Structure formats: structure tokens, C-alpha cells
Amino acid sequence: MMPMPMPRQLLAVLLLVCAGTGAQALDDPTRPPASLLAPSQAKPATPGKPQLQSILVASQAGGRRLAVIDGQIVRVGSKVGDAVVLEIRDTVVVVQRGKRQETFRLYPETRKADHQTGGKQE
Predict the structure, then answer these.
(1) Are 90 and 57 a contacting pair, CB within 8 Å?
(2) How many alpha carbons fall within 13 Å on the CB side of residue 2?
(3) For residue 69, what are the contacts with CB-CB under 8 A and spacing of at least 6?
């Protein structure tokens, strides 16, 4: 059986291996992507249509239904800006703004995808 190398010997071997392979610093897997660290060229966010972020529906029939719109928790009857929440469904919130109704979808990209494929699933 070979004797265990001393810590000083291990350090010397490690240094030789690193120097011989031209080792580079490893990327930190927890570091955000460079695109997030670089200053953004995008225009600053402008106030626009409220953003539906989440919908919470109780599992029991007739249970509570809540939605999160622009970070604000709302229920049916709550105000979102100048609109009133009329209905909260599993993936949709309907609000009344003046005389017109607006629908906010939790997954707006699915409607676009359905529209592009003619509503057919592949």
C-alpha cells in the first residue's frame, strides 16, 4: 500500500496539473447570464395594459377565487386601476373598464399559437 501524500505534496501536484493544462476559471453556475448584467438597450417600461400574473382557485366548489394583477391581489368586485373585476376563471380574468370589457389571459401565448395553427393541435 502506498503512503498517503502530504498536503504540501497534494498542493504541488494540483498546481502542476492546473499550470500544465492552461486551466481557466470555471463559470459560476449561479451567476446570472451576461445579458442580464449588461445595461439594457430596451426602452423603459411604459404604463400600459395591466399584467395578469397569477390566479388562485380554491379546490372546493364555490370556494375563493383570487387573481394577482400587477402585484395586487384582487377578487370579483375589486378595482384594478379604473377597471372593476367581473369574473375570475381558471386561466382568465374579465374586467369592466367604462362600457367595455377586457379579458386578461394567464397564458396569452397559447391563444397566439392556436391562432397561428388555425386552432388545430399537432
Answers:
(1) yes
(2) 3
(3) 50, 51, 52, 53, 80, 93, 104
